[in-house]
Structures are given as C-alpha cells and as structure tokens.
Amino acid sequence: MGKILDAMRARFQSRGTPKTARGQFNALMRKEKNNTARVAERLGVSRRSVQRYVKGERDITKSTPKTLDRLQEEAGKDHQPRVTAKSQKEAERRGMTIETRAQFGFTSAEGSTDDPRMRRLTEEVPDHLIPQVFDALRAGDEDELNRLLGQALAEEYFRTPGTAAEGLDVEFTDIDYIELDYR
Fold first, then answer.
1. Residues 6 or more apart whose Cβ sits within 8 Å of residue 81
2. pLDDT score at 80
C-alpha cells in the first residue's frame, strides 16, 4: 500500500486489512460468501485454483506476485464498508483536513515553472472532493487519492482567484508524512 492509503485507512477504519495472504484470501471468501467463481473472477485466476486454495491443495502464499498484489487490492476494497461509510458521513458533516510534508512542484498556465521543494501544509479538503476521496479509498486507488488530495491542496493553498496563480497545476510528490482527520 501507499502512504496515502495507509493514512486514510489508519484514520477512517477501525482496524487494518489482514496482513497475510491467507488472511486476505479468507476475508475475500467471506465477503463473497464462499462463492469460488466470484473470487476467481476478482483475482483473475481459474475457479479450480481457488478451490485448491480452499482445500489446502495449493498454498496461496506461493502464488504469482501478480495474484498476490491483486489479492491485497481486492481484500482492501471490501474492508469494513460500514465503518468507511460512517466515516464518510462524518467527514461530509464536519469537514476534513490534511496535514502533510511533501514535495510540491508547479507548472503555470503560461508555461513557467517553479522547482519542486518540500513544504509542510495543513489545509482543509474542499467539501466537494470528500465523496471522491472516499470512493478512491474504497477502490484502493493510491494514484487517484494522490491526484485528489493534490487538487485539494492546490485549491486551498496555492491557487489565488483572479491572479496568475489561479491556473497553477500542482504536483504532489515525495510524501514524507501525511495525516488526515476531521475538522
């Protein structure tokens, strides 16, 4: 997982996803009500492979790296949906803040650039982005979370309406640390 996904899950879910491949597989099987066809489809393997994992004829931990990555991703998508939904409602009601130390680079509409540098920022996430942030959390999409939170920081800190800074494209990279919380 990435730093943003880890920070989101640490704050807005009460416990982490299972750490082991076996635990992730069992969680996925529970979510799909032991339907081996649906689990096979989600993992991109054959139904027979899933049946072998269930019976213990094949060890899930010895699967291909691609399958293990897919397993981790799929197990994270379904993790604590009610807790995540409750956290989203609370974030929409109270608002959400982001505190980070990361590298920011800029490209303005006119084509001039500013060299990236480390900055420490604490800003509010605009209300219109909160549902999208939680959708990206549910999907386990680190890149989309990075884009959305970069957009949030750009709107709140870097872009000034009516100035040349209004058109800045902000790159949010090299995250040293990140914390998200309610306002």
1. 138
2. 78
Share of the chain above pLDDT 70, in %: 89
* DSSP string of the chain, one letter each residue: --HHHHHHHHHHSSSPPPSSHHHHHHHHHHHTTT-HHHHHHHHTS-HHHHHHHHHTSS-GGGS-HHHHHHHHHHHHHTS-HHHHHHHHHHHHHH-EEEEEEEEEEEE-TTS-EEEEEEEEEEEEEPGGGHHHHHHHHHHT-HHHHHHHHHHHHIIIII--TTSGGGG-EEEEEEEEEEEEEE-
Q: Are 126 and 156 in contact (CB under 8 A)?
A: yes
Q: Please state whether the predicted TM-score (pTM) of the whole model is above 0.85.
A: no
Residue 153 confidence (pLDDT) above 80: yes
pLDDT at position 49? 94
